[in-house]
Design brief:
Elements (H helix, E strand, L loop, with lengths): L1 H5 L4 E3 L2 E3 L14 H19 L1 H18 L11 H5 L3 H14 L2 H14 L19 H14 L6 H17 L23 H13 L15 H12 L11
Antiparallel strand pairs: 1-2
Helix pairs in contact: 2-3, 2-6, 2-8, 2-10, 3-5, 3-8, 8-9
C-alpha cells in the first residue's frame, strides 16, 4: 500500500515506473544501472565523495554550465554523463579546461577525479588533465578508495547513490532541459536531501530513478558510446571483482 501511494502519479511499464511527463519524450529503453549508468555517473560520485554533497554539487554545476557555454546548441542538452562530456569537440574541451582553470575549479575537480583518470587513461574525461596523473606510489590506497566507491554506488537505492542520481537530475533542471508540473513528486525535488527518512523523499527518489533514463537518449547521450563497456573491461584488468546484478527499483 505504501509503495502504491509513493508511485501513484507514475505509469508502470514492466518493473519500471515512468513519471507522466516523460511520456512526451517517447519510449524509454531499459538501461542497466550497473552495466551502463554507474560508469557514466561515476565522475559525479567521485566529486561528491571527495568534497561532500553540497560543495560537490557546486563544482559539478559549474562544470556543466561552462560546458554549455563552450558548446552552445539549440537543443537543450544535459551534461550529466561522462560520455556526453566526451562528445565535446577538441576545441570545446580545451575551452572548458581553460575556463575551469581560470575559475580555480579545475584543480579541485582534478583532485577528485585523479583515481579515475589514473586507472582509466582512456576515460573520455582525460581532457581535463594536461598530463597523465601521477599517483606517486599511492596506487594501492587510491585503488582501494576507488573500489570502495564503486561498491558503494552499486545499490541505486542507497542514500549516497540517490544523491548522485539527484545531482544528475539537478543538472537537467539547471540546463532547462527538464521541467515538471506542479503536483508531481519530482516538483518537490529539494525533499531528496531528507532521503530516505520521509515519505515524500521516498516518492521523489522513485521519480528520480524513473526519470534518470532520459540521460541515455539523444541529444543527451551518444548512442555509439563505448565508455561503459570499456570501464568494466579495464576494471577486470586492474583488479578481479564480481558483482551480482540485482533488480531494484
Amino acid at each position: 500500500m505504501t509503495r502504491q501511494k509513493i508511485l501513484q502519479d507514475h505509469k508502470r511499464q514492466g518493473k519500471t515506473f515512468i513519471p507522466p511527463f516523460t511520456h512526451t519524450i517517447g519510449p524509454l529503453q531499459e538501461i542497466s544501472w550497473v552495466k551502463t549508468m554507474l560508469p557514466e555517473f561515476l565522475w559525479i560520485a567521485l566529486i561528491q565523495d571527495y568534497y561532500g554533497y553540497r560543495e560537490g554539487v557546486e563544482l559539478i554545476t559549474s562544470l556543466s554550465r561552462i560546458a554549455h557555454k563552450c558548446s552552445p546548441s539549440e537543443k537543450k542538452r544535459v551534461f550529466a554523463t561522462i560520455s556526453s562530456l566526451g562528445e565535446l569537440t577538441a576545441d570545446e574541451q580545451s575551452r572548458l579546461q581553460s575556463d575551469l582553470a581560470a575559475s580555480g575549479e579545475l584543480f579541485e575537480i582534478q583532485k577528485a577525479l585523479l583515481p579515475l583518470i589514473a586507472f582509466y587513461p582512456e576515460c573520455p574525461l582525460r581532457f581535463l588533465f594536461s598530463s597523465k596523473p601521477d599517483l606517486s606510489g599511492k596506487e594501492g590506497r587510491n585503488l582501494e578508495r576507488f573500489k570502495s566507491l564503486v561498491a558503494g554506488v552499486y545499490d541505486k537505492t542507497s542514500r549516497d547513490t540517490m544523491m548522485v542520481q539527484a545531482t544528475a537530475i539537478w543538472l537537467a533542471f539547471d540546463s532547462g532541459a527538464l521541467k515538471v508540473f506542479e503536483g508531481l513528486a519530482l516538483a518537490s525535488f529539494p525533499e531528496i536531501e531528507k532521503y530516505p527518512h520521509t515519505t515524500l523523499s521516498q516518492k521523489v527518489a522513485a521519480s528520480i530513478r524513473s526519470t534518470i533514463y532520459i540521460f541515455f537518449s539523444e541529444p543527451h547521450y551518444p548512442s555509439s558510446s563505448n565508455w561503459p563497456k570499456n570501464f568494466w573491461n579495464r576494471g577486470l584488468e586492474i583488479d578481479n571483482c564480481y558483482f551480482e546484478e540485482t533488480s531494484n527499483e
